[in-house]
Amino acid sequence: MAHPASTMIDRAARTSLWLKPHRIALIAIAVALVASAIIFGRWDWLPNYLPRLGHGVVVTLAMLFGSAALGFLFAVPLGLAQVTGPFWLKWPAAAFCTVIRGTPLLLQLWLLYYGLGSLFPSIPGIRSSFLWPYLREAWPYGLAALTISFAAYEGEVMRGAFAGVPSGELQAGRAFGMSPFKVFRRIWLPRAVHRALPTLNGETVLQLKSTPLVATITVVDLYGVISRVRQETFLTYEPLLLLAAIYMLLTAVLVILFRYFENRIPTRGV
Amino acid sequence: MDAPLINWALLALDPPGWGGVLLRGFWNTLQIAVGGYSLGLLIGMFGALGKLYGGPVARDLLEVYTTVVRAVPELVLILILYYAGTDLLNQLLLTLGYGRVDISGLAAGIFVIGVVQGAYSTEVLRGAIKSIAPGQLDAGRAFGMSPRKILTRITIPAMLPFAIPGLANLWLIATKDTALLAVVGFSELTLVTRQAAGATKHYLLFFMAAGAIYLTLTLVSNVLIGFVERRSRRGFARMT
To answer: Where are the transmembrane segments (chain A) (predicted)?
Structure first.
């Protein structure tokens, strides 16, 4: 079926179907808007800040992937405890997810940074410990808050995923004499992750949109760099528009990347 | 740090305590959440109808609106809408010959949350309207109902059971998104909490107290949502 000429015609037909006259007009208007923003806006600050913007993007992505990876590690036991744990594990896990999901992330972030941050120096001996250089900085608090938030939301997702694995598959594992840990490692976890993958990808994109909050506790991520630009140049529109454009680009890249992996691993409808 | 570990007197309602300040902040939070959510529902209703039944240009513009709002962090949107929105409004008023106006933080906050929520409600309501059995709308048309009557008598009542879980989720997001207005200096619960904590240096106490207030709001909302959801599903076959 995949004849090169036919797919090309197919693609051309699809493009012409998408590219209706009104769309061409809308695209022209959009291009004109962007062009006028570039021509009439003040962009002379951009070259000076370019290295810092690049660094900001790296910090943002580090916060995103760091908190997503760490958060997922916590989410697995949180989900498992809620599905199969004894009550003294089930209740704390459920309470943790409810409390974190029921309060704003900004408040949690400030609680950690200002609250715990102000408490740590009063603990004797902590100043001489190896942790102190990290506790004095802002980014560990940002990473911790993002991780906790991601873990709580994903814990809920993993709970559903663990509960949704057909019990026959687990019984089959037990019937083959697998130990409970082996059943978990070979069947339960892979199947649950497999089922939850589309949701996890969506949540990771949502997590990207939470990362700029760390700028409020002086972590210089992408958003923090742009705030600095706004303070130093007194510009209202240009830095914010650039910021929105960069975030849209990052979101688009993430979505395309995840879609590529999702298509390679068929996950929907299993 | 004096003798008692937790100084409950700081949460007293009268001036030496900060309880009254926190509650006023919470009142602002509630007003913005309710206002922004309602505005979002209004935008979402028009957005959903526009996406389903509107012309090609309206559809594409709405697609751009929902895509952009869902791709850009709420914090950035709030900054853009808050600063650029008030600035644009003032420039417009100046060119029209009126003087500058001071836009109240409350109005700006409701506007900002409403625009963000509107994009998400558009998608929720669009999905809900699409899941109405088409025969129900055909029946209305066969009886000679006007499009408006079909909307109010059939579309809206029939889509509600499908829309309520998504809309309930949006309400919970709206209550938490109001905290982001602290960044632009609107004195809602999170910002007044930070001010109280900074003034007294009892950070943990105040942030915990504010967290308890938010959590109460969420839990009370959850109970009410449960009622509404059960009521709206009357007559449906039981799932599970």
So the answer is: 24-43, 55-81, 93-114, 240-261
Residue B91's domain comprises 8-232
pLDDT at B221: 94
Q: Kindly calculate the radius of gyration of chain B based on its CA atoms and give it in whole angstroms.
A: 22
The answer to whether the Cβ–Cβ distance between A107 and B190 falls below 8 Å is: yes
Q: Residue A237: pLDDT band by 50, 70, 90 thresholds?
A: confident
- CATH code of domain A46-264: 1.10.3720.10
**What's the pLDDT at A105?**
93
Residue type, B187: S
Between chains, do B203 and A240 touch, taking CB under 8 Å as contact? no
Query: How confident is the model at residue B44, as a pLDDT?
Result: 94
Half-sphere exposure of residue A215, counting CA atoms within 13 Å on the CB side?
Answer: 22
- Shortest CB distance from A236 goes to which of B76, B84, B172? B84
Closest A-chain CA to B171: A102
Task: Verify whether the Cβ–Cβ distance B73 to A248 is below 8 Å.
Answer: no
Average pLDDT over residues B154-166: 89
Q: What integer pLDDT is reported at residue A268 of this predicted model? A: 53
- Does residue B238 fall inside a structural domain? no
Contacts of A103 in chain B (CB under 8 A): 176, 211, 214-215, 218
ipTM (interface pTM)? 0.85
Single pTM value for the model: 0.86
Nearest to A240 among B56, B80, B218 (CB): B80
The Cα B195–Cα A242 span in angstroms is 31
Is residue B62 within 8 Å of residue B92, measured between CB atoms? Answer: no
| CATH number where B226 lies | 1.10.3720.10
Nearest CB to B211; choose among A20, A26, A107: A107
The mean pLDDT of B192-219, rounded to a whole number, is 88
CA distance B25 to B169: 23
Mutate to test the interface with B, among A24, A99, A111 (most CBs of B within 10 A): A111
